[in-house]
Every structure is written in structure tokens, then in C-alpha cells.
Design a protein that fits this description.
With 295 residues, the protein is an alpha/beta fold. The chain has helices at residues 16-28, 41-49, 59-63, 75-81, 103-109, 114-119, 157-169, 179-205, 210-215, 219-225, 232-241, 243-265, 269-290, and strands spanning 8-12, 33-37, 55-56, 68-71, 94-97, 120-125, 146-150, 173-176. Strands 3-2-1-4-5-6-7-8 form an 8-stranded mixed beta sheet, sandwiched between helices. Helix 4 packs parallel to helix 5 (103-109) and helix 8 packs across helix 12 (243-265). It is globular.
């Protein structure tokens, strides 16, 4: 394939992630030809008006000349579209995705020809927002953020290198993690916090005193509940796609929650203090070592 900066790159899905990829590539690889595909005509028109993409079209038109195809759709949609791709793309095109669940995507890829499988590199940018759609996208979304590649033995090294270069070009740090570990870890660190935020807001909204609860809620509630403003459609898909690992993460969390409930009921200040100090130290260490935004 040609040099990445001079490639033709098709982004299927111009929402928050796909739109941000397009904007970041337009900024950092201005010589590349960017093609956008989306069912949302308004997003396409806006991306064209802002000169973020060079052209749009139907799926066949958008795919047939692409050197790299980025599937920036919810996981179930990606799994559904994959079987159509081998007949629509160039023989040597590289394909990648952005889904936060990998096994469902991998299972779909395994049903395609071997040559296609070799060029499909599973990817997941650890970046996002509670806002959705192209209007929420930004060229800086991936700067200093991590992107996980879940490569397999059958992947061509040239395809892996192309996807790695693409993410590095937009400022991301590229890591690798096997499929099973990816879905397990993301269930605990991403999916679990989201479902807890949804559950907390739902529980409080159902209280008779809901109006007063939300009126007097402090900043901590706003910070924690921010995740409950995320796209419900996308997250319901994610939970359904990664149900097994999310279920395990919930079981472990519920066990911990019951332990803390017993300590609170017993007014065991010393054990609570010990637990909270340990949690604070673990969180502070995570921020210092692994989170460059220092939030």
C-alpha cells in the first residue's frame, strides 16, 4: 500500500469517534484522501462543508478505492457489515475497527476469506465522551490517549504497521492486548463504570424525593453520573456484546459492595478507613503512572 500520508482512507461512520479520526487525519495527514460514509446525511454534509472529508457516496463507492478502511460503528453493526466487505474492497486494503468489544468482531472476521482476515487488524481507541455524533467530534480526541490493537497470528505485519502508524499519526499511544484479555479488562474498567452510573441515576430518579435529591446534589454526583449521559443505544449494544465478561465484573463488584455495606452498618470506621486509603493509593498510582491527562 502507498505511504499512509498519501493513502485513500475510508471512514465508515462519522460519529464522535469516526468524525474525530477524520478531523485528526485531515490535520496530520493533509495529503491523504479521506472518504466518509454514514447513514446520517446531516453528518456527511457537515463533514463536507468543513472540508474534513474529500468525498462521500454509497458504501460501494466509498470502499472500492480505499487503501485503509476504518469501521467506526457500534459493535453489532460492525459485526453485521464485515461479511459484505471482502467483495467491496481492494485486494490489498487494510481494515480496522474501533469497537470496545473485540470477540464479537473477531468471530465475524473468522467467517471471511483468509486473505481478508490477514488484513483486518482489531483496534480500540480508549477515548470518548458522553456526547455523541459528528458535532461532538474533535481533532484532539486521541492525543495522548491509548489505542489497543488485538492482533492475531494470521495478521500481516504490514497491516499491523499501517494501523499502528495511523493511530500514532493522530497522537495516540499504541498498545497490544489479546482478545480475551481485552474484553475482560474493558468490562471492568469501562463497561462496569458506565453501568454503575446508569444504575445510580436510575435508582435516584425513582425515589419520591428525586427532585430534592438532584437539586441539592454536589459536584461529586455530577462527576460520577456524567457517564450516564453517554449514548444509551451504543452502550446497550456494548453490554449485550460483552455480556459474559460484564456479568463477571458485576459479580465481583457486588461482592465488594456487600462487604462495604456490612462495614457501614457496623459503623466500622477503622476498616472503612483502611479500605478507602488502599483505594485512594491505587487510584493515585494509576493516575501518576498511566493517565497523562492527570485527571
Amino acid at each position: 500500500m502507498p505511504n499512509l500520508s498519501n493513502s485513500t482512507i475510508t471512514i465508515v461512520g462519522l460519529g464522535l469517534i469516526g468524525g474525530s479520526i477524520a478531523k485528526a487525519l485531515k490535520e496530520n495527514a493533509p495529503a491523504a484522501t479521506l472518504i466518509g460514509y454514514d447513514s446520517d446525511q446531516e453528518a456527511l454534509e457537515l463533514a463536507l462543508a468543513e472540508q474534513v472529508v474529500d468525498r462521500t457516496g454509497d458504501l460501494k463507492e466509498c470502499l472500492e478505492s480505499a487503501d485503509i478502511v476504518i469501521l467506526a460503528l457500534p459493535p453489532l453493526l460492525i459485526a453485521e457489515i464485515i461479511p459484505k466487505l471482502p467483495a467491496l474492497i481492494k485486494e490489498r486494503a487494510v481494515i480496522t475497527d474501533v469497537a470496545s468489544v473485540k470477540n464479537i468482531i473477531s468471530d465475524s472476521v473468522k467467517e471471511t476469506p483468509k486473505a481478508f482476515q490477514a488484513r483486518f487488524v482489531l483496534g480500540h481507541p480508549i477515548a470518548g465522551s458522553e456526547r455523541r455524533g459528528y458535532s461532538a467530534s474533535t481533532k484532539a480526541l486521541f492525543y495522548n490517549r491509548k489505542v489497543i490493537l488485538s492482533t492475531v497470528d494470521s495478521n500481516l505485519e504490514s497491516s499491523i504497521s499501517a494501523v499502528r502508524e495511523l493511530w500514532q499519526l493522530v497522537g495516540a499511544e499504541v498498545l497490544e492486548l489479546d482478545l480475551k484479555s481485552h474484553d475482560k479488562i474493558l468490562a471492568a474498567t469501562s463497561h462496569l463504570p458506565h453501568i454503575l452510573a446508569y444504575a445510580l441515576v436510575e435508582a435516584l430518579a425513582e425515589q419520591k424525593e428525586a427532585d430534592d435529591i438532584f437539586r441539592y446534589a454536589a459536584g461529586g454526583f455530577a462527576d460520577f453520573s456524567r457517564l450516564a449521559s453517554s449514548d444509551p443505544g451504543m452502550w446497550s449494544e456494548i453490554f449485550a456484546s460483552n455480556a459474559s465478561e460484564t456479568d463477571k465484573a458485576l459479580d465481583f463488584f457486588i461482592k465488594k459492595l456487600i462487604e462495604l455495606k456490612k462495614l457501614v452498618k457496623a459503623e466500622n470506621r477503622h476498616e472503612l478507613l483502611f479500605r478507602f486509603k488502599a483505594a485512594k493509593a491505587a487510584r493515585d498510582s494509576f493516575i501518576q503512572k498511566h493517565y497523562k491527562n492527570n485527571n
